[in-house]
Task: inverse folding
């Protein structure tokens, strides 16, 4: 048996019995995945996955970083110039190092996917690597293992991708027009046209102007271009934006100062301080736009992205070298919160890799400002212990209802049910301990369990049935007026042209 039925549940028999009941009540609940990074092409084109290495190893930076940390070259994992192209050889390398994942959440996710999705009954090892490669390859040829079929098999109710502000959302349109009933939503990720440190930033602003017919050489035109793109994303079903900033710093400059700052940024002669101030100003501008159009705002702060310059240059982004850094929220968010923090139409979900802020800053902030919600443990803390620490450090101050449940934040399709399963087991264990220590009635725990499993995510991301966005100039189902976008909202056909 690869997976023990009581994994992650408390060792104490009485507590475990309560946790089992709580878990059983939510184990088959639908998966609500409001933030993630699955490839939109999967949903639009519904292609067969090429091989086990392409599915489990090459795109998964959790897997890659662990193997690289033990001296395995990227090339041996199918990444980079001159990389290994034999999928079986890549899989053998993965199997030879599978022991490295002992005690990590990746081991739980991988074991779950191999066992529950592909019917594997032995833990991966060098001795069975070829047999498992052949068994998985045979299943991948079956239409039942294509992305849309797996979406349905996993019980996914809705899944959101994360998409560049310049994306034409072609794959989303293909999925929507195909007649398939799956609900796949884009998310507006404008970092490439907000962060001056992005490679090709000036060209990105030019492109933004081209596809919106807005003058992105001027501050007002640049803001109008964002409004136009946000309106396009809403038309395509988006309910949220996402911002991956190094820090949560915000600013609220007078218009004349913001215009001068933008001019310096646009000239390409801005200082490092100017770049940080511009990112800070744009978080406040994005919050104002969320008040206008109702898109839920997500902020992921506290990651030093691409820590190794050599890895970034040779192998690109998202190769395992994004490292947590300390951040502080209380003073950093004050300009934004002073501007729009008490507006009932704003919802801002905060994520961090700096756990020290949970009880000191994030829980008190979310426990006071009605616009704030706490996102679940992110990346390195998306684990049993990480989820437990998050609950222990936030619930006493912010409660459960100022959080948004769980999201899987993954590129690895087969890990989605595994990650939600870990979250549901972790929360069942936490609730059971509240019951046995008489901080909750058992009936209250059973009311909370489905909220944590999926209901808070639906509410937090405005994913309730029918709340999928409104056309510009209309009123959506949550009562937010959506102003007409200035400039032209480009269609997929126009972008392709």
Result:
């Amino acid at each position: 048996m690869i997976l023990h039925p009581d994994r992650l549940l408390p060792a104490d028999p009485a507590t475990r019995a309560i946790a089992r009941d709580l878990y059983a009540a939510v184990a088959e609940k639908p998966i609500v995945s409001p933030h993630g990074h699955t490839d939109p092409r999967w949903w639009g084109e519904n292609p067969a996955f090429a091989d086990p290495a392409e599915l489990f190893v090459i795109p998964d930076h959790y897997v890659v970083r662990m193997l690289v940390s033990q001296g395995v070259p990227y090339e041996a994992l199918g990444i980079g110039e001159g990389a290994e192209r034999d999928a079986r050889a890549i899989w053998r390398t993965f199997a030879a190092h599978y022991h490295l994942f002992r005690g990590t959440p990746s081991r739980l996710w991988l074991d779950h996917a191999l066992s529950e999705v592909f019917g594997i009954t032995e833990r991966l090892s060098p001795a069975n690597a070829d047999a498992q490669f052949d068994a998985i390859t045979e299943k991948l040829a079956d239409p039942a293992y294509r992305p849309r079929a797996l979406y349905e098999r996993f019980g996914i109710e809705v899944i959101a991708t994360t998409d560049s502000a310049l994306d034409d959302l072609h794959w989303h349109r293909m999925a929507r027009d195909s007649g398939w009933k799956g609900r796949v939503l884009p998310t507006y990720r404008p970092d490439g046209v907000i962060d001056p440190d992005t490679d090709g930033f000036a060209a990105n602003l030019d492109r933004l102007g081209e596809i919106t017919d807005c003058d992105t050489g001027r501050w007002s035109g640049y803001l109008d271009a964002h409004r136009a793109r946000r309106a396009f994303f809403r038309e395509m079903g988006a309910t949220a934006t996402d911002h991956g900033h190094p820090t949560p710093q915000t600013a609220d400059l007078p218009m004349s100062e913001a215009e001068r700052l933008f001019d310096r940024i646009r000239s390409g002669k801005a200082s490092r301080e100017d770049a940080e101030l511009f990112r800070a100003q744009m978080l406040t501008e994005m919050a104002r736009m969320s008040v206008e159009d109702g898109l839920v705002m997500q902020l992921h702060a506290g990651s030093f992205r691409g820590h190794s310059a050599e890895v970034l240059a040779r192998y690109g982004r998202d190769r395992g070298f994004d490292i947590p850094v300390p951040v502080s929220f209380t003073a950093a968010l004050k300009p934004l919160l002073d501007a729009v923090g008490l507006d009932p139409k704003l919802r801002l979900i905060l994520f961090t890799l700096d756990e020290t802020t949970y009880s000191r800053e994030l829980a008190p902030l979310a426990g006071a400002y009605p616009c704030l919600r706490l996102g679940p443990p992110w990346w390195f803390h998306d684990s049993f212990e990480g989820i437990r620490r998050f609950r222990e450090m936030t619930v006493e101050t912010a409660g459960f209802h100022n959080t948004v449940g769980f999201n899987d934040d993954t590129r690895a399709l087969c890990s989605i049910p595994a990650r939600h399963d870990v979250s549901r087991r972790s929360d069942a264990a936490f609730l059971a301990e509240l019951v046995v220590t008489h901080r909750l009635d058992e009936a209250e725990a059973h009311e909370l369990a489905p909220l944590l499993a999926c209901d808070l995510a639906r509410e937090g991301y405005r994913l309730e049935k029918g709340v999928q966005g409104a056309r510009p100039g209309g009123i959506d189902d949550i009562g937010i007026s959506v102003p007409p976008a200035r400039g032209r909202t480009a269609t997929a056909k126009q972008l392709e042209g």
